[in-house]
């Protein structure tokens, strides 16, 4: 892109202030998303009797184009603009997530989706994750800045977290609740809260996990199948492990994989297994390295940051991005109990990929080099 440093247009200022290394890594992951949906989706569409073998591929291309656009446009915002958009997004996503409890489509005993005109299926809780991370960061920063007078901000952020937790528990979506809780605790820890408070919150989190095990049958089933594989149905995990074994170091070649024809979620939750079979260990490590690079690079950009709100918001977004990638890859490799969570930008899914793009757009906007206080506060 031939843009001079003297270019004072919006695009010119963006190009010379955005972290182009992080942007390149994210666009590379989007490229893998195109490649993997092309490899895995036709077999899934054929197996379920879809109207066209390319149905999922065509839809995902549309989703990825939309995601790239969202990420680019959002990355143009100032930190104040990020906060405003996140607040509006949180309010809208919260209303729609509550609506799933009343009018949501029930799938396998859970109500997480809305069927909307023109939009189609929407999982609004996906958008709660990045928006809540930013809103919580702002409120925690306000509370820290106000000192002893910050109890109102603390009460607000804890109330919002409790509201999100209650709605996700009612759906139920315990995996999503786990991610939101981890991100929130990360932000509280980074903010430098008293360690006794952090320890107490951590204890509540562990207690919540034990409670989920005893209260929710699907949680107990997944953990039991992980701990005692011989006592349950681990078909998808077993097929995924076979796929990794068949791929070896270099893979069997693009489009040559066989496990995707029998793996139900080959295009979504278990797309990493398709990568392992068709492209091998080296490409799996490359994808793992890209996720790690985005997280580490983002944290390094924050070392020189002095705005607590920016530090907390970016830390939360990075924690969310890294944890979601870890859960997907570790589930595929049977390192943790299975959880239906997509691999950011690589797995099929409209709500997920757009929400991830929104979060990464927030991150790129927050970690841009801001040349002046006027520019920092604009928007």
UniProtKB/TrEMBL annotation:
<keyword id="KW-0812">Transmembrane</keyword>
<keyword id="KW-0573">Peptidoglycan synthesis</keyword>
<feature type="transmembrane region" description="Helical">
    <location>
        <begin position="197"/>
        <end position="216"/>
    </location>
</feature>
<keyword id="KW-1133">Transmembrane helix</keyword>
<feature type="transmembrane region" description="Helical">
    <location>
        <begin position="308"/>
        <end position="327"/>
    </location>
</feature>
<keyword id="KW-0133">Cell shape</keyword>
<protein>
    <recommendedName>
        <fullName>Probable peptidoglycan glycosyltransferase FtsW</fullName>
        <ecNumber>2.4.99.28</ecNumber>
    </recommendedName>
</protein>
<dbReference type="InterPro" id="IPR001182">
    <property type="entry name" value="FtsW/RodA"/>
</dbReference>
<feature type="transmembrane region" description="Helical">
    <location>
        <begin position="21"/>
        <end position="45"/>
    </location>
</feature>
<feature type="transmembrane region" description="Helical">
    <location>
        <begin position="174"/>
        <end position="190"/>
    </location>
</feature>
<feature type="transmembrane region" description="Helical">
    <location>
        <begin position="347"/>
        <end position="366"/>
    </location>
</feature>
<feature type="transmembrane region" description="Helical">
    <location>
        <begin position="150"/>
        <end position="168"/>
    </location>
</feature>
<keyword id="KW-0472">Membrane</keyword>
<feature type="transmembrane region" description="Helical">
    <location>
        <begin position="279"/>
        <end position="296"/>
    </location>
</feature>
<keyword id="KW-0808">Transferase</keyword>
<dbReference type="Pfam" id="PF01098">
    <property type="entry name" value="FTSW_RODA_SPOVE"/>
</dbReference>
<feature type="transmembrane region" description="Helical">
    <location>
        <begin position="85"/>
        <end position="107"/>
    </location>
</feature>
<feature type="transmembrane region" description="Helical">
    <location>
        <begin position="57"/>
        <end position="78"/>
    </location>
</feature>
<keyword id="KW-0328">Glycosyltransferase</keyword>
<comment type="similarity">
    <text>Belongs to the SEDS family. FtsW subfamily.</text>
</comment>
């Amino acid at each position: 892109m031939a843009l001079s440093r003297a270019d004072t247009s919006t695009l010119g200022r963006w190009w010379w202030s955005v972290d182009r290394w992080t942007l390149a890594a994210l666009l590379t992951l989007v490229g893998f998303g195109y490649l993997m949906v092309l490899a895995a989706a036709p077999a899934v569409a054929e197996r379920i009797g879809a109207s066209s073998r390319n149905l999922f591929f065509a839809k995902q291309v549309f989703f990825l184009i939309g995601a790239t656009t969202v990420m680019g446009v959002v990355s143009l915002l100032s930190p104040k603009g990020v906060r405003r958009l996140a607040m509006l997004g949180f309010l809208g996503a919260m209303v729609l997530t509550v609506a799933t409890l009343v009018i949501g489509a029930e799938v396998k005993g859970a109500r997480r989706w809305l069927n909307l005109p023109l939009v189609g299926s929407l999982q609004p809780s996906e958008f709660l994750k990045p928006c809540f991370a930013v809103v919580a960061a702002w409120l925690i920063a306000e509370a820290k800045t106000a000192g002893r007078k910050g109890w109102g901000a603390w009460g607000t952020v804890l109330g919002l977290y409790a509201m999100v937790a209650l709605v996700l528990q009612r759906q139920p979506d315990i995996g999503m609740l786990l991610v939101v809780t981890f991100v929130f605790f990360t932000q509280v820890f980074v903010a430098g809260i008293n360690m006794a408070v952090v320890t107490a919150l951590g204890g509540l989190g562990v207690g919540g996990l034990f409670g989920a095990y005893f209260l929710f049958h699907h949680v107990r089933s997944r953990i039991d199948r992980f701990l005692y594989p011989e006592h349950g149905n681990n078909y998808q995990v077993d097929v995924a492990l076979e796929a990794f074994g068949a791929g070896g170091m270099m893979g069997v070649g693009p489009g040559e994989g066989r496990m995707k024809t029998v793996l139900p979620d080959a295009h979504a939750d278990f797309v990493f297994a398709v990568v392992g079979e068709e492209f091998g260990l080296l490409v799996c490590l490359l994808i793992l390295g890209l996720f790690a690079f985005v997280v580490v690079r983002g944290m390094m950009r924050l070392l020189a940051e002095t705005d607590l709100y920016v530090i907390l918001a970016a830390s939360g977004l990075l924690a969310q991005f890294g944890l979601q990638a870890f859960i997907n890859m570790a589930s595929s490799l049977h390192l943790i109990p299975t959880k239906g969570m997509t691999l950011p930008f690589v797995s099929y899914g409209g709500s997920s990929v757009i929400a991830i793009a929104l979060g990464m757009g927030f991150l790129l906007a927050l970690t841009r080099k801001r040349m002046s206080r006027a520019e920092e506060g604009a928007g």
